[in-house]
Each structure stands twice: as C-alpha cells, then as structure tokens.
Design brief:
It contains no helices and ten strands. The mean pLDDT is about 95. The chain has strands at about 5, 10-15, 20-25, 35-40, 45-50, 55-60, 65-70, 75-80, 90-95, 110-115. A hairpin with a 5-residue loop joins strand 5 (about 45-50) and strand 6. About 0% of the residues lie in helices and about 45% in strands. By secondary structure, it is mostly beta strands.
Length: about 120
C-alpha cells in the first residue's frame, strides 16, 4: 500500500500563492494518474486537479487558470501550485491516485490551506 504525505499548506491572504507537495512511497506511483482533492468543513471531498502518468492535466472549473498540477516521477512527488487564492479555496488538501487497481490508496493526513479575505 502506497503511503502519501502532503505538505506546504498554511495561512495566506486572498490573492496569495502556495505550493503543495505530496510525497508517495513506492515506485508504483509513477504509473498512476494522481489527483489533488480538497475538503472544506461541512462539504464533501472534491477533486480539483489531476495529472496522468504522462503529464496530461485536468482541472475543476473552480480552479482552472489559477492552479497548476505537476509531478516529478523520479522523486515520487506531485505538486499543486495555487495562485490567486480565494477564501473559498480554504480546505484540507489531499493527494491520491485517481484511477487504476487499488485506487484510491489510503488517505494521508492532508495539509490545511486557509485563505483570509
């Protein structure tokens, strides 16, 4: 089972930027499409960005043009660059596999992002 560790969250003012990282154990990470999910208080977890093993990306409409997902397969790491942050981006952010055998893996602890107005 792949272990996932998210980092990089914090408190930022509206309009600011953060870069999240997600380190995965195991080289199997490299063949999976990965996604960044977020869960705000009282809301369901939602997928906001995804990247295939070859680097193709997709975004939720709410973050399109502001967030950029990338990956470094040599480091077993996926990133989420978040720009022009809004208060409604406040949530706990998680990464996980998007599809494939065994997906999603066990969830990590996530990283808290708080955007103040």
């Amino acid at each position: 089972q792949v272990q996932l560790v998210e980092s990089g969250g914090g408190l930022v003012q509206a309009g600011g930027s953060l870069r999240l990282s997600c380190a995965a154990s195991g080289s199997i990470f490299r063949i999976y499409a990965m996604g960044w999910y977020r869960q705000a208080p009282g809301k369901q977890r939602e997928l906001v960005a995804a990247i295939t093993s070859s680097g193709s990306t997709n975004y939720a409409d709410s973050v399109k043009g502001r967030f950029t997902v990338s990956r470094d397969n040599a480091k077993n790491t996926v990133y989420l660059q978040m720009n022009s942050l809004k208060p409604e981006d406040t949530a706990v952010y998680y990464c996980n596999s998007v599809r494939g055998p065994g997906a999603p893996w066990n969830w990590g602890q996530g990283t808290q992002v708080t955007v103040s107005s």
